Amino acid sequence: SLSAFSWLCTCCLHWLPVALLMMLLMAAWGTGSSQNTLRKEIVARNTVQVSAAAEQLAISLDKTMDMQRELLFDNDINRLGVTPGYYTVPQKALAMLRVMDRMRMLTSSSPLIQQAFFMAPSIGRTITADSVDPLSDADFLRCNDLCVNQTQAMIEMDGQFYIMMAYPTYNHYLKEKGASYLLCLQLDQEAIASFLSAHSALADDVLFLFSDDGRVITQINQAQVSFAPQELFRRAREESAFDLTCADGTEYLVSSAVNTTSAKTLL
């Protein structure tokens, strides 16, 4: 009996390291499995959030852009922009007031729009929701060139983003003769930042909103990060979720979403 007990102790001592190793491996596997599960949950949550934010942004902007396209062919806007002689002087003044109402309607159609304006060289005026001002020929030519050469819905100018539409709408005509008039929307970047913050789960989340060509429309908590936005944009176009390590060694789990509507953006 004593020899049997000794044999059992010897066996236990022999197999104990193997048993401990197996327990450690199982614990490590369990920890890794838990981490993978947690990562998947975080990725899923973040993806839902950024997708919802991108979708709501798109819905708001697309609604306004639909109105913008319709107003491009509005009778008052078209006549003032192409054949202002159609009106008598008093009629022209009333038509301008009606266009102001149209601009007010466009501006109020979305909280993401800061200003809507109609630029018409034929009457030498820029009409907004609040005023009728003399048109700057230089500003019109600059906006015209941007419209003619634009490859995406959003145009960046002096750090501000615009959605510009030109009449006539034929590209070959615009390239040869330029626009008769422009109907433009200026985005409210602060309002967009507030909108994105409201869709953020954590106060210290870092958020970037890009235009389709990789320009940063707005950003939140960007001072916390030390990576280049261009690198983030490149990776986000290729992957919907990935790890990104900053220059200071801080690691971020990145989720992205692309909307495929008229106002193409990547969040």
Keywords:
267 residues, alpha+beta, four-stranded antiparallel β-sheet, 7 helices, elongated
Number of strands: 12
How is the biggest beta sheet arranged?
A: 6 strands, antiparallel
Structural class, please? alpha+beta
Oligomer: single chain
Gross morphology is elongated
Tally of individual helices: 7
Strand order of the largest sheet: 3-2-1-6-5-4
Radius of gyration using CA atoms only: 29 Å
Distance between the termini: 74 Å
Mean pLDDT: 79
- SSE pattern: HHHEEEHEEHEHEEHEEEE
Low-confidence spans: none
Tell me roughly what share of residues is in helical segments. 40-55%
Descriptive report:
By secondary structure, the protein is of the alpha+beta class. Helix content is 51%, strand content 22%. It contains seven helices and twelve strands. The chain has helices at 2-71, 75-82, 89-108, 137-148, 171-177, 189-198, 229-238, and strands at 113-120, 125-128, 132-134, 154-157, 160-167, 181-187, 207-211, 216-220, 241-245, 251-255, 258-259, 265-266. The strands form three sheets. Strands 3-2-1-6-5-4 form a six-stranded antiparallel sheet. Strand 4 and strand 5 form a beta hairpin. It starts with a helix and ends with a strand.
Please outline what is shown here:
By secondary structure, this protein is an alpha+beta fold. It has helices spanning 2-71, 75-82, 89-108, 137-148, 171-177, 189-198, 229-238, and strands at residues 113-120, 125-128, 132-134, 154-157, 160-167, 181-187, 207-211, 216-220, 241-245, 251-255, 258-259, 265-266.
